[in-house]
Amino acid sequence: MVDTLTLVLAAVLGFMLAGLGAKSRGLLPDWIRLSGPIVTLHTDRGKAFLDWLARPKRFWRAWGNLGVGVALVVMAGSFVLVLLGGLQAIANPQPTQLTQPRNVLAIPGVNDFLPLSAAPEIVAALLVGLVVHEGGHGLLSRVEDIEVDSMGLALFTFIPVGAFVEPDDEQRRQSSRGAQTRMFAAGVTNNFAVAIVAFALLFGPVAGSIAVVSGAPIAGALPGGAAAQGGVDRGDVITSVDGTPVANASEFEALLDETDRRTVSIALESGETATVDRSLTVVGAAPTAPFDINTTITEVNGTAVYTEPGLNAALRDREVATLASSTGETVTTPIGAYTNVSAPSDPGPSPLADASGLGGEAFIITAIDGERVLDSDTLGAILDETSAGQSVSVVGYHEGERRSFDVELADHPREDTGFIGVTIQPGTTGMSVDDFGIEGYPAEFFLTAIGGGSGDGLNGIQRAAFTISLPFAAVTLPSIDQPFPGFVGIYENFYVVGDGPLAFLGTGPLLLFGTLLFWIAWINVILGQFNCVPAFPLDGGHILRTSTQAVVSRLPLSDKHAATRAVTVTIGLAMLASLLATIFAPQLLG
C-alpha cells in the first residue's frame, strides 16, 4: 500500500508540472508567482491600513524595544538548544520518531505530530501565526518610515507556509540599526503575544467549560482483536460492562481484571451494545520472548485460557510452563519478569551483574527472597520495598538454566529503594498481553494538562511549557501513548460541555474554539522560537547582525565589517550544521 508521504510527493510533482505549464502559456496573473512547489500571492492592499495603524509611533517603538529584549533572550536559548541537539544527535545517533525527516514538514497527516483530523484548525492557526508575524514586520517598517513594496502569502502548493512583507531594501539599509532591529524583532514579538492571549483563553474559560464524558474513551481497536471482532471501534466510549457502569478507563480495567469470564457484554455511550469474546493477544514482546506480537495465546499446560486473570492464575505457581498459540505452536518457557542485566561498564552500579557475571544479557527473574515473581509488576513491587545495602536471594533462568545468586543491592539513582541493576521488560516473560484489544485515550489527563478538570497545581508558565509538549506526548511521556490533537474529529466524542462560563456555546462550537486556541498558541510559539534561531535568513540572523554591528562599532578594530561578518557567518554555519545533524545524523549514523 502506498504511504501518505509518497502520495504527497506525487501530488507535489503533479502540481509543479501543471504550474510550469500554466506559467509557460501566460495563464498566471501578475499577482501569482510560481517557483517550483512554492506559490507567492502578492498584493498592494493593506498599505493604507498599515499607515493608519502605525500612527502612535512612540507606542510601537516601545513595543518594538520590548520585543528586541524578548528576541535576544529567546535567541540565546535557541542557540544553545539547537547546538546541543546537533551534538547529541552525533554523539548518540538513535533514530526516533521525533527525528524522522518527514516530521520537519508542517503538513498534517505527513508529520506524525500534526494529525489529519485537525488539519483545518492547524491551517487556520498557521495563517494566524504567519499574518501576525509578517504584519509585525510591515507595521514596524511604517513606524520607522520604511516603505512597503508589497505583501502577501507564501504557499507550498495549496498549504500556507509563510506570509511576507517586502520593505524597500534601500530604505531599510539606510535606516538606523535600532530601527532595523525593532522591525526584525516585531514578528516574533507578535507571535509570542498572540500565544499568550491564546493560552490565557484556553487555560481559563475554555478548559473550565469542558468536561470529560463518563466512560472509557477508545482511541483505537487492535485489528483482529476481541473488541474489533465484537464491533467496538475507535471513537467509541464504553459506559458499562455486564450492566455495571464505568465512569472512566480505570474502572473499566478494574472490572475486566476482576472477572475471568470469556464473554462480556458492554454498552457504548452511543446507546449501542456489543458482545466481546475475550482472547489473549500479545501486544508487546522482547526479542527472545516465547511469542511474537499479534500472536494469540490459547492454552497453558493444555488448559484453555482466554483472559489476563485466567492467564495469571494458570502461571502464578509455575516457574516453567508450556504455552500454546492459536496456530498450534507450543513453547515451554520460564515464567517470570524478563530483565536485561546492566553491564558492569554501564554508568552506575550493577549488583546483579557483579554477583552473576551476566552483564549485558537477558535473565528471567522468578523469585526474590522466596517471593514469587510472576511479571514486571510484581518484580517492581518487590523491589520498591527494598533498601540499599540489603542482601537478597535472586532466582531465575538464563538461557533455560535455573540459577540463583545472593545480591547486595546498591543505592537507587532516582528513588529511595534498593537497586539491583536491571532494565525490566513489561509483562510476563517479556510478553505484554491484552484480552480485550483496545487502546484507551487519556482524555482526563489532556484536559487537566490544559487547566480543566481538577487541575494539577501548575502555574501559567509551567502549564504553557507542558502544553507545548502535548503533540509529542506519545514519545515524550512514558505513561501516555497518544498525542493530543485537540477536541475535534473522533476526539469530540470524549468531551462534553461542563459548568464553565462558555457552556452556553454548546459542545461543538466550544470544542472547536478550544482546538483552534490550542493550535494557535502552539504554532505561534513554534514560529516565534524558530525565527529566533540566529541564522540567515531567519529574523534571528538579522537581529544577530545588527546587534553584532552595535557591539563591534564600539571596539577598536580596523575592519569592523569583517569582524561582524565573521561572527554572523560562524554562528549561522554552526546553527545550520546543528539543524542538519539533528534531522539527518540519527538516520545516517544510527
Automatic annotation (TrEMBL):
Membrane topology: Multi-pass membrane protein
Residue ranges of every copy of the PDZ domain listed in the record: 215-254
InterPro entries in alphabetical order: MBTPS2, PDZ, PDZ_6, PDZ_sf, Peptidase_M50
Keyword Transport appears in the UniProt entry: no
Keywords for this protein: Hydrolase, Membrane, Metalloprotease, Protease, Transmembrane, Transmembrane helix
Highest taxon listed in the record's lineage: Archaea
GO molecular function, one term: metalloendopeptidase activity
Gene Ontology biological process: membrane protein intracellular domain proteolysis
Protein name as annotated: Metalloprotease
Organism from which the protein derives: Halosegnis longus
